[in-house]
Design brief:
The structure is a homodimer of 299-residue chains. Chain A is built from 9 helices and 15 strands. The first copy, chain A, has 299 residues and is an alpha/beta fold. Chain A has 2 domains: 3-86 and 176-186 and 204-288, Periplasmic binding protein-like II (D-Maltodextrin-Binding Protein, domain 2); 90-167, Periplasmic binding protein-like II (D-Maltodextrin-Binding Protein, domain 2, 3-Layer(aba) Sandwich), CATH 3.40.190. In chain A, strands 1, 2, 3, 4, 5 and 11 form a 6-stranded mixed beta sheet that branches. In chain A, strands 8-7-9-6-10 form a 5-stranded mixed beta sheet.
Chain lengths: 299, 299
């Protein structure tokens, strides 16, 4: 059966929350083990939409997602929307385990990176990578571990009957994760399914983003020239990310988010002007930009 | 006692090898637990030099190092050199453990990320984060684990009496790590201690690199303008990295590596021209660029 939306993790994970925010509370969901599996579910038609984290305001970019965007764009997977969720972490243990019993702390590496202060304050804690935040709670509770805790949302503690030992353990309250909605390219009129707000557009919602991926021609100054193609036309760049090209040591692919929409004269002219400086250039998606950071819907 | 060079990990780790390549085979070394501890050892005078990984050609940038460069530049820690090492990984187990016994695989997260193909081929493997590659071998051998293996160099297998189950498990043979040499700012004549080659400079060694860190003024086009300041003067940009600014959601610090030397007229003019577009701009170091990737010295 075709699911409405695929996400990484288990129910009550942040990805699950983002998936429901994109596809609606009544959406059918498909839980995947890895970010890559979400892309595959969309590419192979098992889910109409996918939701993947792309950056966190404390830990930074999610490299696996950037790499998967490049790998699956050839299959027609495109970005069709984005959502920003506030992330609050708690330290959660099986019932009966107290703070002084804890030696191992399980969570997704990005969540572990968001709580460096907790590990500095508790040098007896060993950080252990897990595939998912909520999944780590599920796992330690099921195993009945007496020396383990997990970093996840309070919602995950409730979902899997864990006990909250400490709340708000993230390094900074301004902790947001931006998620992308992905879908197979739809060359028809409605290119942004439920990710595009159906409600009348507020000024902020009227903004669009365009994400591009390019590699550079081997000439000095090509990156500045490409970025200049957009800056010269008043198109604002809101994010740039570089990733290594496997097999080409010290060469990079660049991911750039621009404010504007493909089909607008300014954007189309800028993409045309950028072309000669790029070895390859592709548009990963043109979609409504998220509003300013919103509170998580059901924390 | 003052050590010649601090590195992260344990003896026989890649960091140890890079430390000896920078400071000489006879150097006294200080092993640190985290990258941040290497910076602290240099800042507090416990070691004259530090060596830290900054990027890998498969896994990408080492974010902790970028963040520490920003944090410790205020203490006068500067980049004084760089080295590139080829990285080859093996799957290593305690003696008597066979490939089909392995369930948990320990290594540094960057090493785990370099071996994604191994985990795809062995879905029964669970990746577990460790603080160090060679340290993971030391740990599983000491514990006598019967279901565990570690990803590290063949050299680490020899150092800690582990058995090589599989060799060359990295995703791609073009696997290099670039290390930075750091030291306290030396405003005297010799700003690049042993990291600067004493031998007559070959054409490649004659090249210098300058690393800068900046944040942007809040105006569209400022990133393109800063990069243009260098491109317009024929100064080549070889790497750009962005990192989130904690407490300022969706704003970034930019790290840029340029070919050229502070004190040269072109570079100084470009830095001056870039100034008005930056909210903050600082030079993290100006140092001799590494030669093309070199084979590890004692693999």
């Amino acid at each position: 059966m075709l699911a409405d939306v695929a996400y990484q993790g288990v129910p009550a994970a942040f990805g699950h929350e983002a998936a429901l925010a994109v596809a609606g509370e009544a959406a059918t969901t498909l839980a995947c083990r890895r970010f890559e599996d979400v892309f595959r579910a969309v590419a192979e038609g098992a889910a109409r939409l996918g939701v993947v984290p792309i950056e966190n305001t404390l830990a930074g970019s999610v490299h696996e997602t950037y790499d998967a965007l490049a790998r699956f764009q050839g299959d027609g997977v495109r970005i069709v929307g984005e959502r920003v969720l506030r992330i609050a972490h708690a330290l959660i243990a099986p019932r009966g385990v107290s703070l002084r019993d804890v030696r191992r702390v399980f969570s997704h590496p990005v969540a572990l990176a968001q709580c460096e202060g907790l590990f500095r304050a508790h040098p007896e804690f060993e950080a252990v990578a897990a595939f998912n935040t909520a999944g780590a709670v599920q796992q330690i509770v099921a195993a009945g571990a007496r020396d383990a805790a997990a970093i996840a949302s309070v919602r995950a503690a409730h979902a899997y009957d864990g006990e909250v030992l400490l709340d708000g353990v993230e390094d900074h309250a301004d902790n947001y994760t931006r998620f992308l909605a992905i879908s197979l390219r739809d060359d028809g009129a409605s290119s942004a399914p439920s990710a595009a707000p159906a409600a009348p557009a507020a000024p902020d919602e009227a903004r669009w983003k365009t994400s591009i991926l390019f590699t550079l021609e081997h000439r000095p100054g090509t990156l500045a020239s490409i970025l200049g193609s957009f800056a010269d036309r008043g198109i604002d760049l809101v994010k740039i990310e570089s990733r290594p090209l496997p097999g080409r040591p010290f060469e990079y692919a660049f991911y750039v988010d621009l404010l504007g929409r493909v089909g607008d004269a300014k954007m189309d002219a800028a993409l045309l002007a950028a072309g000669p400086y790029a070895r390859t250039l592709c548009v990963l998606g043109s979609y409504p930009a998220a509003k300013a950071p919103e509170r998580a819907t059901f924390v």
